[in-house]
Amino acid sequence: MFSAPGSGHPRSVTEPLDVFGDAADTATDLPPDLDALRARAAGCTACELYRDTTGTVFGSGPPRARLVMVGEQPGDQEDRQQAPFVGPAGRLLDEALDEAGIARDDAYVTNAVKHFNFRYQGKRRIHETPKAGHIKACRPWLDAELALVEPQVLLTLGATAGKALLGSSFRITAERGEPRTWNDMALVPTIHPSAILRADPARGQDRDEMFAGFVADLRVARGLLRD
Ligand code: URA
After folding, report:
1. Which among 73, 113, 117 is the best mutation to test ligand 1's pocket, defined by most ligand atoms within 8 Å of the CB?
2. I want to staple 72 with a disulfide (CB 3.0 to 4.6 A). Which of 20, 29, 160, 172 is the partner?
3. Which residues form the domain of 169?
4. pTM: predicted TM-score of the whole model, two decimal places
5. Does a structural domain hold residue 19?
6. How far apart are the first and last CA of the chain?
7. The domain that contains 62 carries what CATH number?
8. Which residues contact ligand 1 via a Cβ below 6 A?
9. Which ranges constitute the DSSP H helices of the chain?
10. d(CA 4, ligand 1 centre) in Å
């Protein structure tokens, strides 16, 4: 059953939860559209991340997009601008989509976690990987977005989004680019654009190669779209 998280007292999610084995139920209490869902999500207090952030960064894009891309969580820029993928990772994503022949306006983009998780280093806000409990707390929003948009193809960007939808046994390096069926949708897992931005030659990572591989995965997703 879809229930808006956070109607009760804020709870801490710092303790480990078995989120990946525990898919959310179907959305029986689904709002009529994404605007109504966004309005509900704006007040989410289901985990502690809402406390130090600007607000819930909800998905964006056409309400009936054929492709939905799921990232990890908003970054610093996304939190400030209250929109997903508008910072450096978003710019790289735009470039790759362009190269793969997918218009960003054709795709709905969202995140597994809708508040920025960070720690302070001086005045800077440094990204922290979301915990299982954050993903679990946010999952009803993602499920409801998917139920409303009903995309043909889902693209998970990075390990967090892959695990959020495919379970904790998901392994990005072994499984990226391999399409599978997930809840009647085609799903293609791929790497996160931030991984390309962080490419480290000392670890044998070549930025151009990683970008080309990312574009190849996007093309796989594009090939699964129907008219
Ligand atoms: N990284 C993500 O996973 N999502 C964003 O919205 C921005 C950066």
Report:
1. 73
2. 160
3. 34-223
4. 0.89
5. no
6. 32
7. 3.40.470.10
8. 71-75, 78, 84-85, 87, 89-90, 111, 194
9. 34-42, 76-81, 88-100, 132-149, 158-166, 172-175, 193-197, 207-223
10. 23
